[in-house]
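thought: user wants a sequence for this fold. calling inverse folding tool.
action: design(structure=
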């Protein structure tokens, strides 16, 4: 099987994933999954698509993560892995991934701060006199 690449985004994080047949090795920016994501919850999010389809030990994943925070990067990685698995075998994996919402891009992003205000929607206290 040739290398399959996919892209995942979440907030301002971008994940580029290269999926190939292998033994389940996860490499993120030249580091292992355990070195990159210290928390168990983030490792769980990153592996969710593989565990759901039962392909944890059959693919090697090399990922480049950029931008955003650590949680956004984990969720971007989940989307990219799900998209790559969908490219591998659409008939087998698409219904399972779609029903669990792993193929849907979460488009929520931080709203920009407006001038003359302390935040995006927050206003300074109104004073009548």
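)
observation: tool returned 129 residues.
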């Amino acid at each position: 099987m040739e290398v399959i690449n996919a892209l995942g985004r979440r907030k301002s994080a971008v994940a580029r994933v290269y999926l190939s047949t292998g033994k389940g090795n996860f490499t993120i920016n030249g580091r292992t999954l355990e070195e990159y994501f210290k928390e168990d919850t983030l490792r769980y999010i990153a592996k969710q698509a593989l565990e759901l389809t039962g392909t944890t030990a059959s693919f090697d994943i090399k990922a480049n993560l950029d931008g955003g925070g650590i949680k956004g990067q984990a969720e971007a990685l989940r989307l990219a892995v799900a998209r790559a698995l969908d490219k591998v075998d659409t008939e087998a994996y698409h219904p399972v991934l779609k029903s669990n919402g792993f193929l849907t891009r979460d488009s929520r992003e931080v709203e920009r701060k407006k001038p003359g205000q302390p935040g995006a929607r927050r206003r300074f206290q109104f004073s009548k006199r």
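thought: summarizing for user.
answer: Here is the designed sequence. The mean pLDDT is 94.
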